[in-house]
């Protein structure tokens, strides 16, 4: 019983303590909530005050800024109004001045119109007087105006023809005297400036042997040496009855030169066999490559210009190329010097003219290796290695594949013609030579009154015999000039062609 009571009492104590703790906790939370509410209210009040202060400050600053901006704008508007007023004033003054000028011009125009009307009336009176005089003259002379005009023109034409023939003869004689003297000066100057040796065209090279026994070594046992040499070099070795010489034949001048160097070394060494041949050919190729490079560098140094190393190599190869018997590298150098002289006289770009002239035939270094004309090949290689469009135009224009775009391109054309057409520079094939002479005689025979025509002095002169009863002396001089002009326009030829007109009257009497 007692235990039960203690249990009940303990339970009551526990319940009481729990209830007391609950009420204490609730009172504590209410107190905290009230404190937080007070703090929040205080913070809201402080924030409201700060926001109002900031708003009032911003309003005052914006009003001050607007006041300053308004003042600045007003000043600027005032200044611009003054400028506009000044401009308007100047425009008004100019308008007044122009109005005054217009009034004066109108006055002058009226005076001019009055003068024109007076002139027209005077002209009409003059024409009337002239017409009356013409009628009077026609009645007095007994023939019309047109008949008189024809008579006068006929007489004047005859006199003019005679005088023209005499003047042509006198001018030609005087021009010959001056031209001969000037031509001598030009030729001497050209020889001094551009005298260059030319290598004749050849498709064969001759290698000298110390004795005829060396021919047997070159041939080798059962011809093995000569076969090995031809296979290694790509040339034909001709061994005939010529004493102390072996002929190398090939259309490619580079291969022919390699073969010549290799065979010369083998002859000096004396040991000729297939292995030695291959070794000598390889050495000759390297040696020729070095020679080609040196030739190209010498050409570039001679004209004082810089080029890409590959173009230097192609220039060196031109030393082994010929055209109509003329060495292409020598021709290019000569053309470069002539182009430089002409450009200097004309005061244009000397370096461009010399560069274009030196490179105008560069494509001929490739025509044994690639298909195409030498102008197209030259343009392709120069474009590949950075040459300018002006140089490319010089290359294409020197054979009129393109129209010349610059004065320097025209100078290159002239220099090329001077170098290739001067006497002795090139050889001409027999067929081309004969055709040129025939064309020269055919042109001369197209003129009326020509009886016979002969091309002489290798086509440098054409002698024309005319019929004396159809062509008089003044007409002969005129025919010579006309024939020379026609030859210039229709025929291509080196140098110049002299036209000689021969008019002869023979009177034959027989005494019996």
Describe the structure.
With 512 residues, the protein is mainly alpha-helical. Among the domains are: 143-192; 196-303, K Homology domain, type 1 (Ribosomal Protein S8, Chain: A, domain 1, 2-Layer Sandwich), CATH 3.30.1370; 311-427, Hypothetical protein af1432 (Orthogonal Bundle); 430-503, GMP Synthetase, Chain A, domain 3. Helices cover 71% and strands 7% of the residues. It has a three-stranded antiparallel β-sheet with strand order 1-3-2, with helices on one face. A three-stranded mixed β-sheet has the order 6-7-8, covered by helices on one side. A hairpin with a 2-residue loop joins β4 and β5. α8 (328-346) packs across α12. The longest helix is centred in the first third of the chain and has 140 residues, at 2-141. It is flat. The termini are far apart. The model is unreliable at 195-201 (pLDDT under 50).
Order of helices and strands: HHEHHEEHHHEEHHHHHHEEHE
CATH third-level topology of one domain:
Hypothetical protein af1432
- Approximate strand percentage: 5-15%
* Radius of gyration of CA atoms, rounded to a whole number: 54 Å
| Shape type | flat
Helix content: over 70%
Using the 3D structure, state the CATH architecture of one domain.
Answer: Orthogonal Bundle
Runs in which pLDDT lies below 50 for 5 or more consecutive residues are 195-201
